[in-house]
Amino acid sequence: MSHEHAGAAAEPAEGATTVAPGHRGGDLPGEHALWEDRTRISLTPIAAPSILGLFGLAGAFMMVGAWQAGWYGNAATPLILWPFVLTFGGLAQFLAGMWAYRARDGLATAVHGMWGAFFLGWGFFFMLVSIAAVPVALVPTIGTLREGFAFWWVALAVISGLAALAALGANLMFSLLLACLAVGSGFTAAGYWTPSTWAVHVGGWLFVAGAVLALYVAAAMMMENTFGRTILPTFKTRVAGNVPGRRGTRPLEYRMGEPGVRIGQ
């Protein structure tokens, strides 16, 4: 047998793909390596969705929480509140949750999606009450037994609690906000389940506290966006993001480009 071509490189089989040595994916066989080397990901920068989401959350809880705490109004007050709660606390916040997908923020997606959906449901429910499409006996008035409505708050309490734990890895102020909402939801659930007026009132106080924290975090994010540096610290995990005057983020942008490529309009 001739050994004339023993040292020559073997020809690749028909249909096989080749990757240059040292390239990413070069140790992977076949088509997967080819696709990995040729795949590109395009990112489109957007404004922080939680600015809108947190303002919507705060606006809704300012009114609903204060009413629930017994600071103003009566059993008919939700019939006046529902349009604003539905649109700002519900629709606007839910959209912010969907935009959070684009921002690759799973925590914000869960929080704004959940609370936005809740306020949409709350608003629609009292809209139906206002047109007499729901029997008065089913309306969840404070101090009455409403086990079905209590379960709304059970779900909100559990998910908000999990989100508060997750937020510890990113932003302590956001975590504290979610903790207030989780505990407030728990008291509200207990108040409608027992029933207990004082438990519902405590839940309302905690919702107002959560609204104040939401205002703070949203304002901090908005000011960081406009000033280009930290103005109000939110106790992020990154130390630089907590120091006023320092940059907490380093945005990727082309300053001479159109909106979406550069920050702002």
UniProtKB/TrEMBL annotation:
The chain crosses the membrane at residues 46-67, 79-101, 113-138, 150-168, 175-193, 199-219. This is Uncharacterized protein. Residues 7-21 have a biased composition (Low complexity). Its main location: membrane. Keywords: Membrane, Transmembrane, Transmembrane helix. The lineage of its organism: Bacteria, Bacillati, Actinomycetota, Actinomycetes, Streptosporangiales. Signal peptide: none annotated. GO terms for molecular function: acetate transmembrane transporter activity. Residues 1-22 are annotated as: Disordered. The keyword Transferase does not apply. It is a multi-pass membrane protein. Belongs to the acetate uptake transporter (AceTr) (TC 2.A.96) family. It holds the Pfam family Gpr1_Fun34_YaaH. GO terms for cellular component: plasma membrane. It is found in: Membrane.
